[in-house]
C-alpha cells in the first residue's frame, strides 16, 4: 500500500489546483517547480490554475492498470488551460463518440479511486466537456 | 577521442523464456559476443536494464552479471533510462573506450519481463511515465502513444491504415529474422481487427512483453585493425532528454529528443541522414515509428504515414527502417532493445543478415527511446 504521505504532499496541486507563476516571465508551472524551465528564474508566486481550456488530444483506455480496473473503459486527455498550462487527466461525464480535438473542457475536483479496507481515498482533478 | 569499433556481437532467440533466469538470459549472448570478438579479457562492462527490481526483485545487477559471466572483479555499471537503457549503455561504453579509460568493454542489455503478471509488467513499464501526473490519472503507455496518434492524425491526416502498415512492414521483416519473438506476417485487416487497447491503437500496434538480452564488444578501432576483425566503427553518438510528461511538450506530434540526438550523432559522424543505408528505430508502437522517421529527418514533418504507405521505409525501399522486424516483431525486452539494434546494424554492415540483408549496406543508424521521448539515444555505425 502506498504511503499516505505521498498523496498528502500533492494535496495543494490536486485539491486546490495550486501552481507557481514565474515572477520574471509569467510561465505557470504545474506542478510547481523550483526553477523556471523557460527563463531560469527561481522565484514563483502562488497562483490557481485556470478552470477552463480545450482538449488537445484524447484516448479511451480499454486495458487499464490494476487500480482503475473497475472504471474501464474510461477516457483520458491532455488539455491546454486558459493560462497556458497543459495537463493530463481523465475526461468524464461525456459520450466517447463526441470527444473531439479542440473541444472546450472544464477542470473539476473529483474522486479518483480508493484503496479500500480503510485505506486512503484519492481525489484529484478531471476534465468535463463544457 | 579515439575511434571506437564493434568487434563482437551476441544475441539469442527472444520470447517468453520461462526456462531462463535473468542471469542466464544475459550470460548467453554475452558469451557469444566475447567468442565472436575473440578477446581473452574485458576491461569493463556496462549493462542496460530498465527495471530488474520491479520485474524480478533483483538490483545490484552489474555485479551479479559480471559474476555469472565469470568476470569478477571487472568494473561493471548498470545504466537506466527506461526503454533507452540499452542505447545509453552503448553510449557509456563508447565514451569509456573513446576517452582511453578502457580498451575492451562489453556492453549488454537485458530485461526479464515474464516472471511477473501482465498487470505487474504494465506497472513496471508505467514507471517510465510521470507517476504523479500521468500514472495517478490511470494513464498507460499505450494510452500515451494513442494520444500522440490522435494528435498526429488530426494535424497531418495520418490514417488508421497507415499505422497498421508499420506493423505489417515490421512483421514482414521479422518473419525473416529467426531470433524474433513473433517471426510471422500480419495483414492490415488483421491489425484493424485486433483488440482495442487505447483508441485508436490495437494490440497489433503494440510491441510485446519479452524476455531477452543482447551484447556487443567495443574496443579502439586501431586495436580492431591489428586483430584483423571485421571492424564496424561507431562514428557518431548523440543523446538528448525532454520532459517525461507528454503534456509538457511543445508539440505532441514531434519527438524533439530524437531530433536533437539524431542531429548530434550525425554531426559527430560528419554525415547526413540520407547517407544512411538502413535504420533500426524504436517502434514500441506503430505511431512511434512514423514520428521517429520525421524526427530523424528521413521524411518531412507529417509525412511519416505516407512514407510507410509508399514503401519508402520497407526492406527494399529507399530508406529501410527496422529490417530486424523492429520492437514490434523482434520483441521489446526494454533494457536490451538498444543493444539489439546495434547487433542488427553490425550484422547488416558485415553482410551477415541473411534473408533480410540490405544489399551493400555500409552505414546504419540506431535510435532508442525512453518513455514517450523523455530520452533518446542515436548512434551511427560505418563499415571500414
Q: What does this entry show, briefly?
A:
Chain A has helices at 4-8, 11-16, and strands at 18-22, 28-29, 44-48, 52-61, 74-81, 86-91, 104-114, 121-129.
Give the strand line-up of the largest sheet of chain B. Answer: 3-2-4-7-1-8-11-10-9
**CATH level 1 class label of chain A:** Mainly Beta
Instruction: Please report the distance between the alpha carbons of the first and last residues of chain A.
Output: 36 Å
* Number of extended strands of chain A: 8
Radius of gyration of chain B: 19 Å
The number of distinct helices of chain B, counting runs of at least 4 residues, comes to 14
Strand content of chain A: 35-45%
**Oligomeric state of this protein:** heterodimer
Mean pLDDT of chain B comes to 97
CATH architecture of chain A: Beta Barrel
Number of strands of chain B: 11
Total count of domains of chain A: 1
**Global morphology of chain A:** globular
Q: What is the N-to-C succession of helices and strands of chain A?
A: HHEEEEEEEE
Across the major sheet of chain A, the strand order is 6-5-4-7-8
Of all chain pairs, the largest interface belongs to: A-B, 30 and 33 residues
CATH superfamily of the largest domain in chain B: Thiolase/Chalcone synthase
Helix vs. strand class of chain B: alpha/beta
Q: Which regions of chain B are unreliable across 5 or more consecutive residues at pLDDT < 50?
A: none
**Low-pLDDT windows of residues of chain A:** none
Share of helical residues of chain A: under 10%
Amino acid at each position: 500500500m502506498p504511503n499516505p504521505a505521498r498523496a498528502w504532499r500533492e494535496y495543494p496541486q490536486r485539491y486546490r489546483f495550486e501552481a507557481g507563476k514565474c515572477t520574471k516571465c509569467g510561465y505557470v508551472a504545474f506542478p510547481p517547480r523550483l526553477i523556471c524551465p523557460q527563463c531560469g528564474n527561481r522565484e514563483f508566486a502562488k497562483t490557481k490554475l485556470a478552470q477552463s481550456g480545450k482538449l488537445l488530444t484524447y484516448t479511451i483506455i480499454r486495458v487499464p492498470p490494476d487500480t482503475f480496473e473497475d472504471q474501464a473503459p474510461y477516457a483520458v486527455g491532455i488539455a491546454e488551460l486558459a493560462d497556458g498550462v497543459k495537463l493530463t487527466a481523465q475526461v468524464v461525464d461525456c459520450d466517447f463518440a463526441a470527444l473531439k480535438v479542440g473541444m472546450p473542457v472544464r477542470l473539476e475536483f473529483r474522486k479518483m479511486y480508493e484503496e479500500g479496507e480503510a485505506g486512503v481515498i484519492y481525489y484529484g482533478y478531471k476534465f468535463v466537456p463544457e | 577521442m579515439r575511434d571506437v569499433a564493434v568487434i563482437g556481437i551476441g544475441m539469442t532467440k527472444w520470447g517468453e523464456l520461462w526456462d531462463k533466469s535473468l542471469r542466464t538470459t544475459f550470460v548467453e549472448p554475452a558469451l557469444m559476443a566475447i567468442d565472436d570478438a575473440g578477446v581473452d579479457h574485458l576491461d569493463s562492462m556496462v549493462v542496460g536494464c530498465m527495471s530488474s527490481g520491479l520485474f524480478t526483485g533483483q538490483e545490484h545487477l552489474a555485479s551479479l552479471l559480471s559474476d555469472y559471466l565469470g568476470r569478477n572483479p571487472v568494473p561493471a555499471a548498470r545504466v537506466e533510462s527506461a526503454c533507452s537503457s540499452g542505447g545509453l549503455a552503448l553510449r557509456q561504453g563508447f565514451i569509456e573506450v573513446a576517452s582511453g579509460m578502457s580498451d575492451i568493454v562489453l556492453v549488454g542489455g537485458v530485461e526479464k519481463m515474464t516472471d511477473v503478471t501482465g498487470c505487474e509488467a504494465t506497472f513496471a513499464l508505467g514507471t517510465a511515465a510521470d507517476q504523479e501526473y500521468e500514472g495517478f490519472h490511470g494513464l498507460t503507455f499505450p494510452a500515451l502513444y494513442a494520444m500522440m496518434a490522435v494528435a498526429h492524425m488530426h494535424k497531418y491526416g495520418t490514417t488508421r491504415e497507415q499505422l497498421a502498415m508499420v506493423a505489417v512492414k515490421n512483421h514482414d521483416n521479422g518473419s525473416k529474422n529467426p531470433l524474433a519473438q513473433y517471426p510471422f506476417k500480419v495483414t492490415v485487416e488483421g491489425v484493424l481487427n485486433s483488440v482495442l487497447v487505447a483508441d485508436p491503437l490495437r494490440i497489433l500496434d503494440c510491441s510485446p512483453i519479452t524476455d531477452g538480452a543482447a551484447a556487443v564488444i567495443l574496443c579502439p578501432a586501431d586495436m580492431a585493425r591489428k586483430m584483423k576483425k571485421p571492424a564496424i566503427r561507431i562514428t557518431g553518438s548523440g543523446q538528448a532528454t525532454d520532459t517525461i510528461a507528454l503534456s509538457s511538450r511543445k508539440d505532441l506530434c514531434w519527438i524533439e529528443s530524437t531530433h536533437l540526438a539524431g542531429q548530434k550523432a550525425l554531426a559527430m559522424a560528419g554525415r547526413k541522414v540520407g547517407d544512411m543505408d538502413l535504420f533500426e528505430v524504436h517502434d514500441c508502437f506503430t505511431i512511434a515509428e512514423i514520428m521517429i522517421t520525421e524526427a530523424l529527418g528521413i521524411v518531412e514533418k507529417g509525412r511519416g504515414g505516407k512514407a510507410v504507405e509508399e514503401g519508402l521505409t520497407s526492406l527494399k525501399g529507399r530508406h529501410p527502417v527496422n529490417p530486424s522486424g523492429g520492437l514490434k516483431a523482434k520483441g521489446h525486452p526494454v533494457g536490451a532493445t538498444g543493444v539489439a539494434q546495434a547487433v542488427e546494424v553490425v550484422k547488416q554492415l558485415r553482410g551477415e543478415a541473411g534473408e533480410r540483408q540490405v544489399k551493400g549496406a555500409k552505414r546504419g543508424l540506431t535510435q532508442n527511446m525512453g518513455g514517450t521521448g523523455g530520452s533518446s539515444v542515436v548512434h551511427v555505425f560505418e563499415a571500414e
